[in-house]
Amino acid sequence: MIGEPRIRIKGGIPLTGTVRISGAKNAVLPILAASLMSSGCCRIKDVPQLTDVDVMLELLSVLGAKVQWEGERLSIDASKADTVEISADLMRRMRASNLVLGPLLTRFRKVRLFHPGGCSIGSRPMELHLRGLQKMGARYVEKHGYFEVETDHLEGTEIHLDFPSVGATENLIMAACLAKGTTVIRNAAKEPEIVDLQNFLNSMGARVRGAGLDIIRIDGVEKLGGCSHQVIPDRIEAGTFMVAAAITDGDITLTNVIPEHLEPITAKLRETGATVEEEGDTIRVVAAKTSQSVDIKTMPYPGFPTDMQPQMMALMAVSEGTSVISESIFENRFKHVDELRRMGANIRQEGRLSIVKGVPRLSGAVVECTDLRAGAALILAGLSAENGTTVEKIYHIDRGYENLAQKMASLGANIIREES
């Protein structure tokens, strides 16, 4: 479409150098939502400049919070927040907008939300969130695309999640912080971003323990105060740059990473023949002379992350042998397959399985981002391809990567972002 930004790439250049990883998108969004429960000022460092973050900050402002930048830190004062309804437009612009449900309900006892939007990679139903809140004493009714939730007061209880949903785990933790008594969440999601949320909440005065395990306990408190917090590094951005080294025959050192969060990705890259060296908060990835195919099955953490499946598929498309990629999290997360095929990839899809037979080299083409991580995969494919590649609809990429094209260029890539 005329006027939409795009990225142009001339591939075939090994990427080398050092890149700093930004704060984690999937950690900062629930942290920003949790700031709604504070009676003081929260100062948060390493907040990435992303469109999803912009939407969440706009959402907080609409709810009555005061949001401002203080140098490199973001300051949020939600003490005078007074609104419990969010417009359909704001909700549809970001899936993570539903994370304000728990904080608003526990603070104001009433909330009205429309169904969230975001990437169309599969259903992320609200039933787990709502059923958990219902066990805590909430009542809800769904009407014409929105739902109203209210409670006289939230009471601590035991909740067993049918699936370790990250969003439901986060919403229920936040709701329980100001509830009466103790809440126990079983079969909780274990992602590092939930540990970061726990640390943020506890620094405000909450009493949360067990994040990172499958049982989380929250003792309700009377109120939460202000705090200072630094967001953890983004493990998916880090994984994307690790694959960038492997797919371009490169040598990249990543700084500001937590290697333990990257173990599933590191293990698979080592299987391909790449060298991965860890030291402190840095990781160095050196490509194999010939990358070997590996099989991948996405799983909840600590399994292989679904958010890295498209990027690894791009690498498998130019690796020696045949790989089987199984997507167990989102039913529609193979939309990038057709775009990779445009570039010459040999991929056969059968339901939630993709069989990828490696080819010596991909060819440049005009391709479209279908979602955030698919966009990253297409950029990686373009970096390794012959001739030029144009990636369109990159607004998806802006949702989750801070200055991705500029960071790739700093490593030697021939990549240009065109705004129109």
Automatic annotation (TrEMBL):
Q: Which residues carry this modification: 2-(S-cysteinyl)pyruvic acid O-phosphothioketal?
A: 119
Q: Which organism is it from?
A: Heliobacterium mobile (Heliobacillus mobilis)
What processes in GO biological process is this protein linked to?
cell division; cell wall organization; peptidoglycan biosynthetic process; regulation of cell shape; UDP-N-acetylgalactosamine biosynthetic process
Q: What is its main location?
A: cytoplasm
Role, per record: Cell wall formation. Adds enolpyruvyl to UDP-N-acetylglucosamine.
Residues annotated to bind phosphoenolpyruvate: 25-26
The Enolpyruvate transferase domain, residue ranges: 10-408
The record's GO molecular-function terms, alphabetically, read: UDP-N-acetylglucosamine 1-carboxyvinyltransferase activity
Pathway of action: Cell wall biogenesis; peptidoglycan biosynthesis
Q: Which reaction does it catalyse?
A: phosphoenolpyruvate + UDP-N-acetyl-alpha-D-glucosamine = UDP-N-acetyl-3-O-(1-carboxyvinyl)-alpha-D-glucosamine + phosphate
Note whether Cell membrane occurs among the keywords.
no
Provide the active-site residues from the annotation. Answer: 119
Q: Which GO terms describe its cellular component?
A: cytoplasm
Q: What gene is behind this protein?
A: murA
Coiled coil ranges (UniProt) are none
Pfam families reported for this sequence: EPSP_synthase
Q: Can you say what this protein is called?
A: UDP-N-acetylglucosamine 1-carboxyvinyltransferase
Annotated binding of UDP-N-acetyl-alpha-D-glucosamine, by residue? 95, 124-128, 307, 329
Q: Which family does it belong to?
A: Belongs to the EPSP synthase family. MurA subfamily.
